[in-house]
Design a protein that fits this description.
Helix Hairpins, 3 domains, 9 helices, 426 residues, alpha+beta
Length: 426
Amino acid sequence: MKLVYRILLHLSWVLSLLLAGWAALFYFAMIDEINDETDDALEARAEVIVKRVLAGRQLPGSESDGNSGYFLHRLPTDAADPRPRERYTDEEIFIPERDDREPARVLRKTFRDAEGQWYELTVMSPSIEKEDLREAIFYGIIFLYLFLLLLVLLVTVVVLHRTMRPLYALLRWLDSYTVGGQNPPLAVETSVTEFRRLNEAAERYAARAESSFERQKQFIGNASHEMQTPLAVCRNRLEMLVDDPRGLTEEQLGEIAKVQRTLDHLVRLNRSLLLLSKIDNGQFPETEAVDLNALIRRTAEDLAEIYAYRDIRLDLTDEAPLTARMNPSLAGSLVGNLVKNAFVHGAGGGEVRIRISARRFEIDNDASEGPLDAGHIFDRFYQGTKKPGSTGLGLAIADAVCRLYGLRIAYAFRDGRHVFTVDFPE
């Protein structure tokens, strides 16, 4: 979940709790204030009536007027003592004229005159319909909640979007960053201390990665270059021993042949590593328009002759011309490694199919086993099935060439066949 959405989610439920609590407090505060005002009026009216009763004066007009009146009752002496002197209640008063009940605030007050006679005075005053009030507050709170929620979310989105721009710019820069590639500088202006420190940390780690990558490339290049001479000397000396077999037994000649095969493998491995190092270092700046149709056809026919002993058929379909601007040597390495991989790793007696179309060529071969690991197949020294003489760098070289020229190479396993495709940009 994105950071903005997580913040909005937390704001939503926090705002919900706050508004629910505020609504409850508002309701009880309003009811308390209304009751206080009504109780004061009832107290004042009851005081006037009590004073007139005690003074023997005439009481106010009508004793009952619906839910706005009063009643005065004599009480037995023994029944009045335990009663509270004043009680305020909310009641529903039946009004005969309306044949309905109406809410009222009721004050019941007991008092005693000079002769010791107890009275209970009931004074009523119309009150608000609390159910209606609760409903009105409920719907009002819902409307207020939705309005405030939308307003807060809108303001939050705008503020966060503007505030998080440096972070989004840094993420885009990191997503497009390629170690050893032509990367644009991180130009993000921000006054936020945390974002500024994050940018500085990203630049430091990027510089550290570039330094490590450069040292690695230099080591591979230097090691491969320095290994060429001793490997060539060893091969020449072994060839001299084989050409002059005096004093050598058949068993010794067989061992020398094994050593030669090992040296040949080391020479191929060294050349592949040196080629990868040169590709990573950008040492193939020369480019020209390469006719990939002719290059693929020529390479496929040559390899078909070389691997004829495996009885592998070649099916080449040329649907459209395919031309790309790239270094001819690297184009040859790309095509050669993919086509050779199909012949070397294809099942004996099977078929290698090559299809060339506009902006793409595809190579597939019969699989002797199941699918390969698509996540690691282009890694250096990865080999799904070990083949004699294979260095494990052919597909890594093809991938490096594709990355250099912005091509897209992909692997798939379809209908029991390994399929490699290379897409060229428009």
